[in-house]
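Summary for the steering committee. The consortium agreed at its last meeting that each partner would contribute one worked example illustrating the joint modelling workflow. Our contribution is presented below. We chose a case with several input lines so that the handling of multiple components could be demonstrated. No manual editing was applied between input and output; the record is shown as generated.
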Amino acid sequence: MEAPDALAAGGAGPPASPGSGAGRDPWISLAAHTTARIALGRAGGSLRTQSLLELRIAHARARDAVHAPFDADALAASLRARGLEVEPLATAAPDRKTYLARPDLGRGLEPGSAERLRARAPSLGRRDLAVIVSDGLSAAAAGSHAAETVAELARLLGESGWSLYPVFLAPLARVKLQDEVGEILGAGHSVILLGERPGLSAQDSLGAYLTFGPGADRTDADRNCVSNIRGGGLPPREAAAKIARILVESRRRGLSGTGLRDG
Amino acid sequence: MTGWSCMIGRRTHQFGTLRELMGRATPLRSGDELAGVAARSAEERAAAQLCLADVPLARFLSDPLIPYEEDSVTRLIVDTHAPEAFAPVSGLSVGGFRDWLLDYGTDTPALSALAPGLTPEMVAAVSKVMGIQDLVLVAKKCRVVTAFRNTLGLPGRLSVRLQPNHPVDDLRGIAASMVDGLLYGCGDAVIGVNPATDRPEVLDSLLRMIDEVIRRYGIPTQGCVLAHITAQMDAIARGAPVDLLFQSIAGTEAANASFGVTLELLAEGHAAALALGRGTVGSNVMYFETGQGSALSAGAHHGVDQQTLEARAYAVARRFSPLLVNSVVGFIGPEYLLNGKQILRAGLEDHFCGKLLGLPMGVDVCHTNHAEADPDDMDALLTLLGVAGCNYIMGVPGSDDVMLGYQSTSFHDSHYLRQVLGLRPAPEFEAWLVRMRLASDDGRLLPAGPAHALLTRGSA
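What follows is the complete predicted structure of the assembly.
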């Protein structure tokens, strides 16, 4: 079993970084195995002042990340620089504050944007996959990891003979937007990549959700998710490989969601 | 009767259906505004509460808000209602029921006997005309005791779920957080990991690792890997050591479908977990999580307010005699519970409603960073839940879940609550902590050096 090895490995060693170990617990070397806040030490049974204030700083940074503006133009340029076509879409959410309080608006296209996509669909033809990118709840996630993930995904699927639409850039979107976009286009699959809600230790996690046969009647049970895409989590290129694997399996079996394990 | 109305000053407020009245009477929260079921003014809300107080409790049996023919959860509620248990309050109105609950004479045995006679809609209705202090006082009188390898929910006890999540399910990372939690005296409710993936080999290795630690150190607790129930049932079929079977559930058939579950599937899973016979002091094998807003999130709310739908999820849970049920109250985000005030009220409502229906309620006292809430709000809810007799809370290292990306309660938080209210862990686990020299007889943490058995390969 690996567990006891893990326990023994960390147990008796010296603190991982003695300088920062003051007041931490004697098992601080276990912290090398996880980003979780372990071996924090205590004052009585409570958090020490330093740990408490570190938490406050992390919370403050996460709060700032939620409200940070999204530079869609820069992301579009980055995608184009990787050889990808990009087309903008707009959801019904008018601004960030409304977006946070009204998820329904982020799940659908703004009527004009939907109309333009409908008009465009025949010239694009039916293709295997529509990829949508959004800031979601973390502009930093989309800005930092979306271009690399999408470019690698396009490369891998291209090798497998998949046909892809231009990458759709849709600020202020929720996951379900992939259904409307996929349905208008008649796409075989849709994938949406969007910023996950910022946590204390990571404010730039990207999530990817894929659906076979996207349409209005699809629910979360019909989706598969690859989450925590970021340097310190699942790196973009590995994430792309994982998404591609699931897509290929999903097409082979003709389903997505809880019926499909993300092997 | 075609509806309800009441006069406030010169203005008459009218409510066409019981469903509408329930929504309008609900204390303000963003999810009901999103659904369009909330009161349109503060006065309308107060008027609706006035009307609701006069509704006979029995009315909810004949008018179940979501039709019997349309929804399997409604059918479960109606078909399992126990009229003889309901008898003591069958003649009361919602307002009269509040007074009855607060009466000195209404004690723990009376509330335990009443539980099978109550429906989710009844308890949701009475909660809407109750203040925070009422929700605390009545919940405190309820007692729901469950058992698997230890006994949870006894008076004067507070248990903790050890939640050692890791962003990519790294076994050593999860083991490190587990050891940290155990050294901090936490884990009596369950050692429960939310996996980042449903992959079978990952589930099996997590289940085996948790089981190995529990057996090696003789810890009187249970393990759980909170994957989708079908993935856990597959793990059972492969022979993996499954103690508790977990599933997220909601209050309507359609919302449960969006989670990929039906009542039949839950029953099948329940039977499979029971058949393993892994409990030593009890056989409550199910673990459910819920949260206000999940039905609306799935487009499956039928025009019913989110707090009533949450209570309906407890009817689903009750069917399967769970060891643990907790609302993950602030997890869903500001579109359903906007800020600290709304999260606080919702957490106490969920605990109250679950307890009154006879469930072993815990609460994941938590928030996300896009909600208007902060750790001070969490401290307030945590304290109130402790006073209300909450069965368990979460224990996450430093309160920061690095996999799910939200803030819950920490191991340290549990020691605060136990100190300030004189609460102790589950008795079997408490004895283990003393035996392992992790805590003193009076519950204080003892210094654990690098040679402690949990940090070496030694056994207990």
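Residues 200-216 of chain B form the longest helix (17 residues). Chain B touches chain A through 76 residues (CB under 8 Å).
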